Amino acid sequence: MCIYHLPYWILMHGLLYFHLVQKCDQFSADLFSTSSAPRQLPILCNSTTIENSKQTRQVTDDFCSKVWTTCQNVSIMNSPFAASLKGQAPTPVKSNSTKLTDLWQSQDDFCNTFGGAASGDGSVCFAGEPVTLNTTEPPSLPGGLCLEKIGNGSYLDMVAHPDGSNRAFFSNQQGKIWLATIPEVDSGKVLELDETNPFLDLTDEVHFDTQFGMMGIAFHPKFSQNGRFFASFNCDKQTWPGCAGRCSCNSDVNCDPSKLPSDSGSRPCQYQSVIAEFTVNETASQPSQAKTASAKEVRRIFTMGLPFTSHHGGQILFGPKDGYLYFMMGDGGGTGDVYNFAQNKKSLLGKIMRFDVDSTPSAEEISQLGLWGNYTIPKDNPYIEDKELQPEIWALGMRNPWRCSFDSARPSYFMCADVGQDHYEEVDIITKGGNYGWNMYEGAHPFAPPKSPGKNTSISSINPISPVMGYNHSEINKNEGSASITGGYFYRSMTDPCMSGRYLFADLYAGAMWAGTESPENSGTFNTTEISFTCAGNSPINCALVPGSSVPALGYIFSFGEDNNKDIYLLASSGVYRIVRPSRCKYTCAKENATDLGTPAPATSPPSAAVMLTGSYKNLLLLMLSFLLMVVS
């Protein structure tokens, strides 16, 4: 099904109503296929479709006769059934007419013009129900991913510059952000980034360790006008006075911090998770011209003490459609989420949160809602329907979400990788109010959590959403016996046209990468294929290889990145790598030479939960919409 935000007429009980948005039949998409040849209006089915048409075989009754019987005496202004639209019918009985009986001599005349069956030339007919078209297989995967190395630095995050230029921001775990210029694909040039001149240096505030550091950066959608950006990092309250927030282990979630076991010698909630706002308005007259930013915080958005030293996610992203800030938070650490934080609706651990950072809350609002900082709650957050949820929560049941992204072509596809514990690594499509199962499930597999001092959740009390992609630990790193997923992006560049539309993700240990192909499109069902990768022989920076193989020695794959041209990057411990044309690595892609290397057209959105039309007039409503869409176009 598809959704068109176009006016259409609804016929009901002899009256015409004007509506703005409604489901339309999949068949109407056929009206918009690119063709320079004249195209007739779609026909109304009056016989069975044939085997070699585009339309899946389906038996139909005489729908054209139904349309005549239902509509013959109904007035329809600007009727799509006018004789002139088909160019092959006799002159209407009356001029300036609005009824079918005014336009056509008889039912036979009407159906001789508008009736028919699908044919082998690719046309379809409309039977009053959604038309199912034969699906076509996506192009075959190339032999592997071809990479070029364009930088030697090790970074944790990459964000394309909001001004749409060929620049991007890179940040490392220690607490620095750099502004870099990205070379054109196939230019043979390297990333222009001056390590000695960071855009922002927060190393005095950031606590850096294996599990801690600067975990994410996000630039306001209107950064080019307002100069606002945000950093997510960890701090140590024993070394920095500005690191002071409430402990996430508290009586509201049935947790007593005095009873928490020692974790690597740290005290409970000694380490905090922080989101802070910064600006470039003090260093440049125009935000897009800024080369540095002030390290002085404009506003503390969020501060929360962490119960243990692991599983605290930390990525932040702005929603491309709603403009709200999303914050990914793990379950706080500990084997099996012993305090059941991820399922506890009063805890923000093991959650994806959603903030409005364009409004400043009053002191009364902060106190009344128990907010953790200076943000407000979007009015459509899930707590509106589920009063047990903390108002910040967008989704729950996460173990440690590590790298999430919105599909640039279909923003409703919000993808998050969630790190597993013993057996399974997963990729989820995040939806409003969704529960992703941890710690009752690891992936789609039931998990037996330890007895929780904070009370266990009954497995029968939740309706978990299963992952759409993932892999078992046993499939990789057999020698190390461990695995950790790194989420990626839908590939929307045409640099590698055979990879277009597939979701890429990897394992942290760089032993494997996968491409997920959705089939059928917009179904939420994915087939995953492990895909090999190598470096181009003419890479701007030579790639070191794993001894005895042609596999580049990437080290750890920390993150993926996407630039304004939709090219995809791997941020690894050994450097920055970009996906380039398959032929540079002698991989074969049949579409490479025939495809324009520009930005691809946006894809359609996935099916929504819009209400379907029902009743005796449904068929006619869909018919009217399909025809009028053609007329409008």
From TrEMBL:
GO terms for molecular function: oxidoreductase activity. The keyword Membrane applies. Residues 158-506 form the Glucose/Sorbosone dehydrogenase domain. GO terms for cellular component: plasma membrane. Keywords: Cell membrane, Glycoprotein, Lipoprotein, Membrane, Oxidoreductase, PQQ, Signal. It is found in: Cell membrane. InterPro entries: 6-blade_b-propeller_TolB-like, Glc/Sorbosone_DH, Quinoprot_gluc/sorb_DH_b-prop. Pfam families: GSDH. Residues 1-26 form the signal peptide. This is Hipl1 protein.
